[in-house]
Amino acid sequence: MEILKDSFGRKFPYFRLSITDVCNFKCGYCLPNGYQVDKSDHRTFLKIDEIERLARGLSELGVCKIRLTGGEPTIRKDFFDIVKLIKEKPGIKKIVITTNGYRLNKIAHQIKDSGLDGINISIDSLDREKFKKITDHDRLPEILEGIKILQDLNFKNIKINAVLLKGVNDSEEEFNQWANFIKNNEIDFRYIELMQTGDNLDYFKKYHISAKKFIDYLNQNKWIIQTLGRDAGPSKNYLNPEFKGKFGVIAPYSKDFCKSCNRLRITARGDLRLCLFGNTGINIRHLIQKDDQIEEFKDLILKQLNFKKESHYLELGDTGLTKNLSTTGG
Ligand code: SAM
Ligand code: SF4
Fold it and tell me: Cα(132) to centroid of ligand 1, in Å?
């Protein structure tokens, strides 16, 4: 079987697939004015039969993990059908999602029954008012209820992500709130450092703070960086024997961040993105129209990988095509 590898020796067993750009939340760093139809792009979002061929091709390329993201992936009416068909592909050992969790309390049972292997839920603060301010939605209690239902159903692999925002959720009090939350909860909580995108420069200037602030907190509070058996990927995880959950940090501006890159992306309209940022990547949709195109599709992905660059060059302010992360799935 082919293994996807780039010219810097990095391997790519993991794809993030956005299935819609649409989102109902208005996170200040992502879609502050809510989802707006892109009038310059008339292409529809990938249809289920296209996703099926895509998953088949990726599975044959040695991809073993697919994350469904968006926009908000659970908005799609055929969301669980998509999960099911990807799960049926023999090579895909893990299918996971990233969601804002807006109806988690209603779909928790379906999530468990669907066989999803993991869920990342975005919660920027445990303070209801702050959560509302950041997302424009007062839905924190429902999301937390959804998490509780999942845990009662013995659903494993729940992660929570928050974007670290200066003066909003970067205080010791906030960090302690999360520490209390994971003390007896087998949940990994990670802060993601705010990234600059094409649309959010003013927001970025106002709210960006280095993840170092949280790392200092972890060091002061006896959290120990996990070196052995660390999940391949960009999150640095920290353990503390007194806590059931783990802390983690995703710091895209840190030195060497791109060295551990193990993922490629496909947007909701079928553009391959070799990096979350940058201008590399082309449309692959024309090669997932018929079953007999699979070899051509695989060939194209293999060839494109040669164009993957060593770094995202984000520190130079080069956000490339990425207007906001709802189009590339974060
Ligand atoms: N709507 C889903 C959600 O919010 O989880 C999935 C898509 S969202 C684009 C994926 C992740 O990207 C979320 O955890 C979100 O917080 C994060 N994100 C969005 N914009 C970001 C930015 N500018 N910098 C850092 N993380 C960002
Ligand atoms: Fe929607 Fe996720 Fe973007 Fe928030 S981060 S606006 S929930 S896509």
Answer: 16
